Amino acid sequence: MTVPMLPTEASERLALGIRDISPALSFGLNLDSEGGFIGLEIVPSWVRVSRLSYDQAENMLDAWPFKGLLSLAQNNEARRKRNGAVNIELPEVDVHVEEGKVVFRPCVH
What we know:
Layout: H1 8-14, E1 22-31, E2 37-47, H2 54-58, H3 66-82, E3 93-98, E4 101-106
Antiparallel strand pairs: 1-2, 3-4
């Protein structure tokens, strides 16, 4: 049995990628040359969404916009490490209810 987090009507109207164009909040970040945060703009918007698997996205890391996003993520990770951040690797899990009990199972890829 699946119990949704949001009412079905809200998911149908607001979920990204359900329709050709979806309502969204777009976040514009201004970063300094080292990837540090210096400004933020949040605006209501309409977006087109393409759903990709992790494998599909990984195969596109040499193409725009993924290449730029990867570079930003790598710069941010390096900046965080230089500033003493700790990285904790946790397994991805599937959470569901079986016979009234919450069950956690590691996802195997």
